[in-house]
């Protein structure tokens, strides 16, 4: 059953309505036993504790390797972008591209 909230006196769905529910379908609405928002916060906090515990077990050298790899990828991407710009500017045909973006 889709969840909904009460907002300014109107029941507003927070999930998609089933496709077989047509206009005028009678619904029975009941107050939820517990707040889904509170449950979501509790689960998010639990998930974050798990992530932090796993992160604490990692070797700092792995983090350094990952950061170095990311920096290298960004450096290569910047170089390719600069090369593409240079090639596009040096092409005598108006609007021509260097071919880095693929043939059209």
Question: Descriptors for this entry?
Answer:
104 residues; mainly alpha; two-stranded antiparallel ribbon; flat
What is the distance, rounded to the nearest whole angstrom, between the alpha carbons of the first and last residues? 49 Å
Strand order of the largest sheet: 1-2
Helix content: 40-55%
The number of distinct β-strands equals: 2
Strand content: 5-15%
Cα gyration radius (Å): 27 Å
Low-confidence stretches: none
Average predicted confidence as pLDDT: 82
**How many helical stretches?**
2
Secondary-structure element string: EEHH
Q: Note the overall shape.
A: flat
Task: Please state the structural category.
Answer: mainly alpha
Q: Tell me the major beta sheet.
A: 2 strands, antiparallel
Describe this structure in words.
A hairpin with a 2-residue loop joins strand 1 and strand 2. The chain is mainly α. 51% of the residues lie in helices and 8% in strands. A two-stranded antiparallel ribbon has the order 1-2. It has helices at 36-57, 60-90; strands spanning 4-7, 10-13. It is flat. It has a domain at 59-104.
List the helices and strands and how they pair.
Elements: E1 4-7, E2 10-13, H1 36-57, H2 60-90
Summary, kept brief:
This protein is mainly alpha-helical and 104 residues long. It is built from two helices and two strands; from the N terminus they run ββαα. The two termini are 49 Å apart.
